[in-house]
């Protein structure tokens, strides 16, 4: 299986997914709705116009990085990208779909660790999946906590959940279909999965711009994959969070201090990339 299956090849085309991942077409970039909670809602048009001045600079930085310009590193490209979103705070605020999906992921994993997989599936309305293969159960969980949305940002959030669960699949060696091994999830496992999901979300969102630059510069598939891997590794090594006084086994990530924790992780992640 392997996490590389989630990120293989240049984006812009259908990304390769782990075998268990449910099918779901990526939404057209123009297919937005008016829900203010959605990351790409039309109500943000004025804000997007304000950010357009920074976006051209971000594209130049990314293009120069793609073309191996002297002195331009992935760090420069990351800083320009976050600034094109209006800075760390605005980047975090525009990640509503990602934050919602990650909060759901944290809640599900905490429930599995505290109550067991079967009770968690029942609480999700997925009791029909009890006893099914790990692939079927994970696909059902993805659909429950990160359903196919109507915006690219929601599609990125869904892919991030797939990637985080894919890593858990490998970590717990669930290819033997003994998915009840997840009952032994620890606090550190959950914290790691939450961070994996956020890293994957930031990567997926940035990859939309990256893929355009790759296609524009007519890179070979090998070079494109190398650049994507470098950016993914940079995000992975840069984004960390100290879960001080956060009881991930029992906290409700959808509200109160749990919601604030997710907000803080996203904002700190973007601040790190902007610095």
UniProtKB/TrEMBL annotation:
Biased composition (Low complexity): 1-15
Basic and acidic residues bias spans: 35-51
UniProt-annotated stretches for the region Disordered: 1-55
InterPro entries: QatB
NCBIfam families tied to this protein: QatB
Protein name per the record: Uncharacterized protein
Organism: Echinicola vietnamensis (strain DSM 17526 / LMG 23754 / KMM 6221)
